[in-house]
Amino acid sequence: MPVKTQGLIEKIRTLPPELLIEVEDFVDFLQSREQERGLSRAAAALSASGFAAIWNNPAAEVYYAL
After folding, report:
1. Long-range pairs of 18-27 with CB within 8 A, sequence gap ≥ 24
2. What CA–CA distance (Å, rounded) separates 30 from 40?
């Protein structure tokens, strides 16, 4: 579904000032959450090669069978 930026802007323009504060807070929250998710994805990607040695360890097969 394409984002209808102009329609969203028009809806925001019709809001009273006290609700604009809430909209801004929500947008800040969404941006912060997306940044945190990006950092989590980057950390997972960086650690994947380190964990591969553990996950692909034939000696650990005994523990997987438990």
Report:
1. none
2. 15
Lookup result for tokens 């553990």: 54
What's the rounded mean pLDDT across residues 46-60? Answer: 76
Q: What is the CA radius of gyration of the chain?
A: 23
Query: What is the pLDDT confidence band of residue 3, given thresholds at 50, 70 and 90?
Result: confident
pTM, entire model: 0.58
Which residue spans within 1-66 are E strands per DSSP? none
The set of residues, in sequence order, having a beta carbon less than 8 Å from that of 12 and lying 6+ positions away, is 20, 23
Where along the chain do its domains lie?
A: 5-64
How confident is the model over 27-39, as pLDDT tens digits? 999 999 999 999 9
